[in-house]
Amino acid sequence: MSGQASYKLLRYVLAGGFSFLFEYSVFVSAVYVCGASAEAGQAVSYILTLIVNFLILRSWTFKSKDRGNVHKHLVKYGILVTFNLPATMLLIGWLSTMGLAALIAKIVVVAATTIWNYFVYDKLIFRQPLSPEDVI
Known about the structure:
The relative contact order is 0.10. The chain is globular. The protein folds into 2 domains: 1-63; 66-128, no CATH class. By secondary structure, the protein is an all-alpha fold. The chain is built from 5 helices and no strands. 82% of the residues lie in helices and 0% in strands. Helix 1 (3-33) runs antiparallel to helix 2 (38-61) and helix 3 packs antiparallel against helix 4.
């Protein structure tokens, strides 16, 4: 793996960690500071995190310089999010029926989605056009 690819992967992991902390902080604030229900806190924290995560992934992790395609990136990101929710639910359910504890199944599925999402972000959603140096 090249140095540039290694740094991109590191940024991806850091962005994911930040997104988790952001989502958790918003959830805790909504429920315990603002008095929202757990369901409302989850909805607010999830939606805000999707927005923040998209912006971080696009601008910092994958360093998209393609300013004209924000809408295209957002649509692809939305499709991935829409795919991930039922896919993760089905995988966790399947692993649980296979005898794996739900807590362990959740960890396995989060690891799997983290890996496949990285490749989808890198190769499909935020793919950078080839530079002349890449062609040579």
